[in-house]
Design goal:
homodimer, about 300 residues, alpha+beta, NADH Oxidase, 4-stranded antiparallel sheet, 11 helices
Chain lengths: ~300, ~300
């Protein structure tokens, strides 16, 4: 029982759909051009404002205030979002701005002042092709993967634009949890050739976080010239890095109060429970990608 | 014959794996806070340096010089890349830095000073789980889609970091063209639970482009509160927007010299030829996603 209640509270208070931010910069700081706080090791200056924004990226876990976002700011983010690269400049996405707060909650399970929903979408291109008498069949997984990359690039560009303007953000794949059909129903998405990929909730956090989530930024993430298979020693180092609370890599800081020896014990026995066995049936995401017509036979 | 030679030259000179940049800002400019060049309609100022970087994002189409990138700059980009959001802070990616120029060409088909290859990768997490005695099966399309989002977020964060530092970039899915097995072979990628998703080629362009590629940034891309199905009139407007050469939306500026009435005629009859019929057999991308173990039965 304790575990169930705790799990529910945990999910309610801090479900990290997509968790935020930055922390450990010792390796960078070893380079000559950067100043470092000698007590914390934190980087004091990055070479430009954009890198500062990137180093300060962080996720607001649903605690957005009721303050409205100025229309000009939303427009700025919207126009920024399309400037990322995209394959053959075909912009195989649609970006839906939602300001109705109840709708935002129904779609993402989170509250916020505005939502940008980034969808893989070929319907505009198909409509134009038909109008000109061309047959066009974006009907396979290559189309889906390429369009997903285009779509995610737009979403992350919007995140960086928003945070540069002082807005708080939450990127979430909450749209893929629960009954996914709701997203199609609420937003009247086309059933074919359109797939809601990633949601960006925007607003103003009611309070600053105590810390920004950290990141692994060494061996196992970065490889040189070719893929490096981890040694047992390196695996143990990574496990220990997750256990180092000062690095804030975990979703839950009190994992050790639950009798777990390591943070990753908590993650696997508790958070990733369903993934401890092979997948038994088709996931909803795959079913909806199929229904959208992006899986060749 | 003419068409074949022309196609080859076109591909050689300007294959837009993932094309760049920004152009039309009239809608934004309609807001009060921004100055506009009255002759061109271009935005003169954006509210901060980061937005300036975003509005100036553009792709270098392979014309990189032989100049080396300072090690500190590569390190800065590498560390910036991990600061994007990622699901449950599990960082389900690997980032491989390649400086061997021949290898870069063999992998991407492009030349450049450095390559960051962003791979969906669960091997680090699986290794750690095994070491601690946990079973972990990231074996379905939901895992793949979620990890692809994480991986692309890292890639676009790296692009914005690099361009803020004055580097030129090319994001390409060239790794998915030709014999994909070469990427596994050259970089010794694990056969399972690892998939090379997107490549970022970095360097210094030998010359500035004459213009930055434009973007559609109106109806059909942006939707309000719900999905808007295009009217015939709107479809015709989008077709006309592609035909407006001043917007630089096309991959090829001389489409009308080839007897096409519209840019999209050129795109469909020439560039997207293979997509004019339904996909007949499994694409290589889907085959490799399956082999990587990300497709549930």
């Amino acid at each position: 029982m304790k575990q169930k209640t705790e799990r529910r509270n945990f999910i309610k208070s801090s479900l990290l759909a997509l968790s935020g931010a930055i922390f450990y910069k010792s390796k960078l700081a070893a380079n000559a051009n950067y100043d470092v706080d000698s007590s914390t090791g934190a980087l004091l200056h990055t070479p430009n404002d954009t890198l500062n924004v990137i180093h300060n990226l962080h996720t607001t876990h649903g605690n957005f205030s009721h303050k409205e976002i100025p229309e000009a700011d939303l427009e700025q983010i919207r126009l920024a979002s399309v400037h990322g690269a995209n394959s053959s400049n075909m912009q195989t996405y649609s970006i839906i701005l939602v300001k109705d707060r109840q709708k935002i909650k129904d779609i993402t399970t989170y509250e916020g002042s505005a939502l940008f929903l980034f969808c893989v979408d070929f319907n505009r291109l198909i409509d134009c092709a038909k109008q000109l008498g061309h047959a066009y069949y974006p009907d396979n997984m290559t189309n889906f993967v390429t369009a997903s990359i285009n779509t995610t690039i737009a979403a992350q560009t919007a995140v960086i634009a928003a945070q540069s303007m002082g807005l708080d953000t939450l990127l979430t794949n909450g749209i893929h949890r629960g009954d996914m059909q709701r997203v199609w129903d609420i937003l009247e998405l086309p059933q074919e050739k359109c797939f809601p990929l990633i949601a960006l909730v925007l607003g103003y956090a009611t309070e600053e976080p105590l810390y920004h989530a950290g990141r692994l930024d060494g061996v196992g993430i970065f490889h040189e010239e070719k893929y490096h298979k981890l040694t047992t020693e390196e695996i143990n180092e990574i496990i220990a890095t997750y256990d180092n609370k000062e690095k804030h890599l975990g979703l839950y800081e009190n994992w050790d109060q639950d009798g777990h020896a390591h943070y990753l014990d908590w993650l696997h026995s508790y958070w990733l429970g369903r993934a401890s066995e092979p997948t038994k049936s088709e996931t909803a995401v795959f079913s909806f990608i199929k229904r959208s017509g992006f899986v060749e036979s």
